[in-house]
């Protein structure tokens, strides 16, 4: 499964920024060892249901350590039997563009 998610604390730093909190969440994802990708709006992680959701939960907990309220946006692509979709889905689109 692929899960794209965005986590943000309820408040930011003195400039309204949330990059420090988001960095802590991304670190959790990267240390998980699961295939992942971070873009300007979402982090996507690939794996089995329980392992992916455990990573998302831990990322929320880490942000929650610094903020009394955390926002989570999550989108999942659940397709049993498929792996490597983090890059394969993008490649299929690129291949279609080349036709």
TrEMBL record:
Transmembrane segments: none
Alphabetical list of InterPro entries matching this protein: MTH1187/YkoF-like, Thiamine_BP, UPF0045_domain
Domain Thiamine-binding protein: 3-94
SUPFAM superfamilies in the cross-refs: MTH1187/YkoF-like
Family: Belongs to the UPF0045 family.
The protein, known as: MTH1187 family thiamine-binding protein
Protein's organism: Nocardioides nanhaiensis
